[in-house]
Amino acid sequence: MRAWLLLASLGLVFSVHPDVALAQAPSTPQTAEGAVRVFLDCNFSCDDTYTRREITFVDYVRDRRDADVHILITTQDTGGGGTEYTIKFIGLVRFANVEQTLRLVTPATSTSDERRKGITEVLKRGLVRYVAESPVAPRIRITLADDGTKTGQQDPAKDPWNLWAFSAEFGGGLDGEQSSKSHSIRGHLSANRTTDALKVQISVNGSYRENRFELGEGETFTSTSRSFTNNALIAKSLTKKFSAAVVTRASSSTFVNQDFAFRAAGGVEYDLFPYSESTRRLLTFQYTIGFDYFDYKEETVFAKTSETLADHRLQTSLSMRQPWGSSFASVSFSQFLTKPSKYSITAFGDANVRLFKGFSFNVFGEVARTRDQLYLRRGEASTEEILVRQRQLATGYRYFMQIGISYSFGSIFNNVVNPRFGS
Predict the structure, then answer these.
(1) pLDDT, tens only, 68-85
(2) How far is it, in rounded angstroms, from Cα 286 to Cα 316?
(3) Strands, DSSP E only, in 195-237?
(4) Mean pLDDT, to the nearest integer, of 37-47?
(5) What's the CA gap between 321 and 111, in Å, rounded?
(6) What is the set of domains in the chain, with CATH numbers?
(7) Alpha helices, DSSP H only, in 186-244?
(8) What's phi and psi for 150, nearest 5 deg?
(9) How many CB atoms lie within 10 A of CB 58?
(10) Where in 12-144 does DSSP place strands (E)?
């Protein structure tokens, strides 16, 4: 049964909707044949989703070997606490040896929205010399202000992968000293296909960690933890504000006493704002309903070794990235329909707000009321299990919070970068 459910979670994404097949012809391209191919290499320095939405007259590729232009963005701190962005345009293939370097300096008081807007404007200016020599040139108009024209996201001119993107990550580590040692391994696989009409996401994650402690007098204690998760999602655009989805999840975790867990659900989502404005603001209401199957490693406090339940979940999320700063907040409610007394409510918030010039306030936290720990093992946890958090303990709530302020003042004219002594 487990094997069938796991295969179902993977196979579902290829059978629910015909648009996801690898062999299907890609969508009709909207960029011209021969459009400049760009490899954006900015790591965490920029919001590449925002950039792709704002700059739609080029094709973005995932490997520099496929690019006409490699854009490398690096950063250094300025003396006034700001950031200097060095944006290097490296011409490849038909633009070989055509290079240029542009710079952008943002003050310490700038918000993430101001920074990404500045980076995007510099990218537009830098791309002009390359686009001017491409077939797209007659269709390009460079402006300094929004003229209200809706450009939308463009599909690549030609794509043998039909917009599918795959990634694989594997790694591990070890550390130790005289009285303790540990080692771990982890892996991640994902396959994604995203268009305006349909989004498909599949991911598999696994991890293993072992800790060994020497307690003295020849006594040792070993703690091991294993986890595996397979998530699959198909989200279909219905209107500018409505979407529907099918989700599946198969998992295993020693921490929560689940030898195997599976959930399949369907749901809808409504965004108060059009999805096209997602890089600036989102206010979504999401509802899903489905069923769960649990196979426990050990008998639970409710005398269960396995069970099948129905559940539903409601979540409201608000995300804002504006000149005044950025914020994200969500409230979620989940409940087992077959056991209404088993539910959880979680509220999460993250905000970085510029209250006035030079002064910023940030807060990050979560609070939850938990009444749905059906997986708790029967029997008392040992002292060692509690100290190393080898198993989930019974709790009616959980919380965490971080809060801080920052204030910068003085001269705003200090754009000189001096990397001596590493600061």
Answers:
(1) 998 988 887 775 567 888
(2) 6
(3) 198-216, 219-237
(4) 81
(5) 9
(6) 32-139 (3.30.160), 164-407 (2.40.160)
(7) none
(8) -90, 115
(9) 25
(10) 37-41, 59-60, 69-77, 83-91, 99-106
